[in-house]
Hints:
Blueprint: H1 9-20, H2 23-36, H3 38-66, H4 70-78, H5 82-118, H6 125-133, H7 135-154, H8 158-184, H9 189-196, H10 204-223, H11 229-234, H12 243-271, H13 284-291, H14 293-323, H15 332-352, H16 368-392, H17 395-405, H18 407-418, H19 420-433
Amino acid sequence: xxxxxxxxxxxxxxxxxxxxxxxxxxxxxxxxxxxxxxxxxxxxxxxxxxxxxxxxxxxxxxxxxxxxxxxxxxxxxxxxxxxxxxxxxxxxxxxxxxxxxxxxxxxxxxxxxxxxxxxxxxxxxxxxxxxxxxxxxxxxxxxxxxxxxxxxxxxxxxxxxxxxxxxxxxxxxxxxxxxxxxxxxxxxxxxxxxxxxxxxxxxxxxxxxxxxxxxxxxxxxxxxxxxxxxxxxxxxxxxxxxxxxxxxxxxxxxxxxxxxxxxxxxxxxxxxxxxxxxxxxxxxxxxxxxxxxxxxxxxxxxxxxxxxxxxxxxxxxxxxxxxxxxxxxxxxxxxxxxxxxxxxxxxxxxxxxxxxxxxxxxxxxxxxxxxxxxxxxxxxxxxxxxxxxxxxxxxxxxxxxxxxxxxxxxxxxxxxxxxxxxxxxxxxxxxxxx
Length: 434
């Protein structure tokens, strides 16, 4: 792939924030917040400061210091490209289920747009099951989502990825307050707010450990740690740019949007009767939109447009990583086409499995969606991050951090690699494997 560079420090922040802000913020964060309440939010915020920020700084620093993507960076840092392969395989698997969920958002956006003119759209579990059971339709929208991400990826970095991120990330932040206002006006929404700040019974030590594990996994998923994305983006970050400031801006933007998404989704889900589980975004939320007629359809159109933008900003970054497999001599268009075709393989398989509703045989007792989640965010990403953390504990790693981050930030990040970061990684691994 051709050499990339950001036009400015803000260009990098927008792209990195776009990679971080995705379905993790709007799909899974509200689900965990509804389930665990205030303890989850507190744990997530503490982990983001003590471990997420240092890990993000470290991965960007490794990329800028080596000038390579994940495989090259990890080979130079660890003496082996295996952790880099783990990170890039995680990106491929994540692109698989991202594409199916992104295609579902595209379909729901169009359904609600049609409902604006017809007086309301259908809603609830029946609509969702009808969509995912129609494999050709689900596969079509999955491929359309991949194609949209590939078009952005194929363009030059500044006019494609960077320009789209500069447009999409601020738009997300501007749309969320309006969606929150609509959500809070729904009958019964106050119970959702109460649930977000409640301290539910966690089920003793085992329940608390499960909650902490969910927070750790969510942080990995949301901040794109261990995917190879931040190393790849950091490789073309100008030397004069401050990595600590850039990383802090990314963590702050990602966390803010996740919390705002919680205020938009959880009260609406409670207004629909409570919960909705993993697919709350497509069942409980659409039930609310359907009950409000044409105004609800407009609300639904805007909501799924927001989720689609969030999914695209992350999908583009995942395609960037997968596209490096096309080789250094491939142009951006060829690499984007290669990455799109490769990503379509797990994506269509997950679509064929009906997003986990059992159309295909299970993999070790898991649906194809759950297996892809487990392998990517539960195993490969923490494993890659753990390898990076241990490599940075060596003298050469400490020198790399001080060289890229400055003396004070480098020492603090190195300390985190020996303490909070390792605890976070271990929690993420144990939460999904045990």
